[in-house]
Amino acid sequence: MHVNLKIKLASVFVSDQQKALEFYTEVLGFVKKTDVPVGEFRWLTVVSPEEPEGTELVLEPNDNPAAKRYQEDIFQQGIPATMFFVDDIQTAYKRLNNLGVKFVMEPTEAGSVTIAVFDDTCGNLIQIAQE
Description:
Elements: E1 9-14, H1 17-27, E2 31-38, E3 41-47, E4 56-61, H2 65-76, E5 82-85, H3 89-98, E6 103-110, E7 113-119, E8 125-130
């Protein structure tokens, strides 16, 4: 029997949920989808404004020591926590750079894609790519 699996949620650990929400909405341009208090934290998701019913990105608190270690280790190793696709990487790079986003890799060709990597200010490196 064939089962159709769908990705509805993906997560990134963040050091500060409010700061992450502001960065992901005000700087990157995502839209807040869900914001529900859960104890001292929140179930907090954002989506692409172009796909409001699409995959949600959970801004997951890194309060768990294992999550914090993982986040810090991959950051120090230069490994992006996730990747977003853009239609025009040069335009996205210029826009984000003008907003003060710190890039650790400028747009670079990598085979059939062009990639760039930036710091999301919440403990992650994020890669953007243009196919």
